[in-house]
Design goal:
Blueprint lengths: L2 H24 L17 H15 L14 H11 L4
Helix pairs in contact: 1-2, 1-3
InterPro entries: ACP-like_sf, PP-bd_ACP
Protein name: Carrier domain-containing protein
């Protein structure tokens, strides 16, 4: 799998999880890969739920104290692609 394919698939998974945890908030908005989550009205509880879902689905651990800047789908993709060895 090419890096771009892996990135696109990962991005799609994160968007899907994002919709699960914050669907009501995001319903009438267009969320782009570089949209800052705080700008969407997402609550901190929804954000933590998103982290938890990402960790569970992708079997990773995200240290929020070291990674406070994970505030967009693309930033998550960059971070996760660094963490997860290529399959």
């Amino acid at each position: 799998m090419h890096a771009e394919d892996a990135r696109a698939e990962l991005r799609q998974q994160i968007f899907s999880l994002l919709t699960e945890v914050a669907g009501g908030v995001l319903e009438n908005q267009t969320i782009e890969a570089d949209t800052e989550f705080p700008e969407t009205g997402m609550s901190s509880i929804e954000y933590l739920a998103l982290i938890e879902k990402i960790e569970t689905k992708l079997d990773v651990f995200i240290d929020l104290e070291e990674n406070e800047d994970l505030t967009t789908v693309d930033k998550f993709c960059d971070y996760l692609l660094e963490q997860v060895p290529s399959a």
